[in-house]
Specification:
The protein is an alpha/beta fold. Helices cover 35% and strands 22% of the residues. Helix 7 runs antiparallel to helix 18 and helix 16 runs parallel beside helix 18.
């Protein structure tokens, strides 16, 4: 949830940059800064806190300069501070960055071993040093940035400025949004379109793996891998404010599905110290006495959040070896609340206003449990009633059908598991470091799954006419089968059920025939042989089968009618790459059927009554 702005042109840049950042405030941030190039010198100003703190510093400064970049930051590596705020500088290079550099530890060691001094705790400053090193070899700014990008693993939206080339910016995108605005004799860049609208409606949305050199005359767009020119795709947008909020997508639901890579990054940022194998919840620390005396965990939730809770139970029991109970909040009878002082009670709610979950929190407090919340909406009722809240930082979720909330809730549950495991000494620093490394690589994998949208829409056309579907999964992926069925039924009105694959022969198999398509979640791992056997049993009943399998699985192609291949990630994190394709499948079927995707009949975003 970070904002980027940049400007090249004849006007004074500072006011344009600040106005753009203000239009991106909805993304959330904890610090802000701008950098300007004037008279062959770089001027950088940064401030912890809101934009007003930055503006107060700029009020007494010389803010002349017609080229500049701006940024609002939500902490990834390093706490919120002036030093960790963007822009970051190394020598004559200054840049802003959204995303996470996965291999920053090895790069940082390399830079420090070369005798360079780092002034922040961020991964972003590393990139500035890499560019500065390449410039010292005599390269142009564009070629230096491209060479530096070749060293990076992870996600980034980058805007780079150089004192020696003060009439241009170089930008690059990988798994983080970046949009160019083309004005009359001026060029802008931002992380979202609203920041560009006061100046221009002519925009160029960078695709994955693209970079560009911006001047007042326009942009030179090229591929990062090959450096070859790419066609410039100019779009004329006539967005209203609401359309700007939708990001140009037909529905909020589609926008929110596609936002999941960014939402995962924002949920992870500031909470992970890879070098130490530690997770930090600085804003939500659990009392050490509660952790030390923990005997049981109880999770209460409804709907999609309940599916996240089922996955959380696997995490807690596998890593902590602590008995964990998951309850549907509406089924939790006050008189049957068997919790006490040695129990951690977790309420999960996207909105923080779910009535049944709120009642469960009140009951847990009454019986002496330690109430905590996992929530997206800051300051809502459930967080206010809880002792501790772990916020997901998913950003606004407008569509009634919840999407990015699930992914970010699973991520918080995973982080909370590792946080508790380290404090209970049930996970070594080395093992925790490995698991966290797997986690920070997941947003990139999820980005690849949401790029399957067009392929999934083609698939949806073939299945939109069916009246029933069955979703099968095992272990951690059974709750995702439940979620896939829920999404399909709530927005397309097709009857769908999710089942543990091992239970299929205990009843549902009687329904399977040519008119019952079956979606089988069959990623690689310990459950694969069994789920593959279930798939063959389904196929023997002549059902049409859609399989979600790990990349590189050739065998399943012979048995399933349609296969969607997802990145092969750590088994504990497979739900995060399986979920977006199922959401897209439901979305496209609903859109093809002409239903009201964002506001399905009889449903509300937050169930605030019993």
């Amino acid at each position: 949830m970070c904002g980027i702005t940049g400007y090249v042109g004849p006007r004074q840049a500072a006011a344009i940059l600040i106005d753009g950042l203000r239009r991106l405030e909805y993304r959330g941030y904890d610090s802000a800064g701008i950098a300007l190039c004037r008279d062959g010198q770089l001027y950088v100003e940064r401030a912890k806190g809101k934009l007003c703190e930055l503006e107060a510093r700029l009020a007494t400064a010389d803010t002349r300069g017609t080229v500049g970049i701006g940024h609002t930051r939500w902490a990834t590596h390093g706490e919120p501070s002036d030093e960790n705020a963007h822009p970051h500088r190394a020598g004559d290079v200054v840049l802003v960055h959204n995303g996470i550099i996965e291999n920053f530890l090895e790069l940082r060691r390399e830079i420090e071993d070369a005798g360079r001094t780092l002034t922040s705790e961020t991964d972003s400053e590393i990139v500035a040093h890499l560019v500065d090193v390449e410039l010292a070899q005599g390269r142009s700014l564009f070629d230096a940035v491209r060479a530096a990008l070749g060293r990076l693993r992870g996600s980034y939206a980058l805007v780079v400025m150089h004192r020696g080339q003060p009439d241009r910016l170089v930008i690059a995108k990988n798994s983080s949004p970046l949009i160019v605005g083309l004005g009359e004799g001026e060029t802008l860049v931002a992380s979202d379109i609203p920041a560009l609208l006061p100046t221009t409606r002519r925009v160029v949305v960078l695709e994955e793996g693209e970079m560009a050199e911006l001047t007042a005359a326009g942009l030179d767009l090229r591929g990062i891998d090959d450096g070859l020119p790419r066609p410039v795709r100019v779009t004329e947008t006539n967005w209203s404010p609401v359309m700007a909020e939708k990001g140009g997508h037909k529905h909020f639901m589609l926008k929110e599905i596609l936002e999941q890579p960014r939402a995962l990054i924002d949920t992870i940022r500031g909470r992970v110290a890879l070098e130490d194998g530690e997770v930090f919840f600085d804003d939500a620390a659990i009392d050490p006495n509660v952790v030390r005396n923990l005997r049981r965990i109880v999770i209460a939730a409804c709907g999609t959040s309940w599916h996240a809770a089922l996955i959380g139970r696997h995490f807690f029991q596998d890593y902590l070896r602590i008995p964990t109970e998951v309850v549907i909040a509406s089924e939790l009878q006050h008189s049957h609340m068997l919790v006490g002082p040695s129990d951690l009670f977790i309420a999960i709610s996207q909105s923080g206003e779910t009535a049944d979950t709120m009642e469960a929190v009140r009951a847990a407090k009454e019986f002496g449990a330690f109430p905590t919340a996992i929530c997206n909406v800051i300051g809502s009722t459930i967080p206010r009633a809880s002792r501790v809240t772990f916020y997901t930082h998913a950003g606004p979720e407008i569509s009634v059908a919840s999407t990015k909330a699930l992914s970010t809730q699973i991520t918080v549950l995973y982080l909370l598991t590792l946080y508790l495991a380290r404090r209970l000494e049930r996970l070594s620093p080395e093992r925790a470091r490995t698991l966290l490394q797997h986690l920070v690589e997941v947003p990139g994998a999820v980005e690849r799954t949401v790029q399957m949208s067009a392929r999934i829409r083609d698939l949806a056309r073939e299945y939109a006419g069916y009246r029933n579907m069955l979703f099968l999964g095992r272990g951690l992926n059974y709750p995702i089968a439940l979620e896939g069925a829920l999404k399909l039924k709530e927005i397309s009105y097709i009857h769908a059920e999710g089942y543990p694959a091992g239970e299929m022969k205990h009843g549902p198999i009687a329904l399977i025939d040519e008119q019952m398509p079956v979606v089988v979640l069959a990623p690689s791992g310990s459950q694969y042989d069994r789920i593959f056997s279930n798939l063959r049993e389904v196929k023997a009943r002549k059902a049409r089968v859609i399989a979600l399998a790990s990349e590189g699985n050739a065998d399943i192609q012979r048995w399933a009618d349609d296969v969607l291949q997802v990145p092969d990630v750590h088994p504990d994190l497979q739900p995060l790459v399986l979920t977006p394709p199922l959401q897209l499948f439901a979305y496209h079927i609903a859109d093809i059927r002409g239903t009201d995707v964002d506001q399905p009949r009889n449903l509300a975003k937050s169930v605030t009554v019993h």
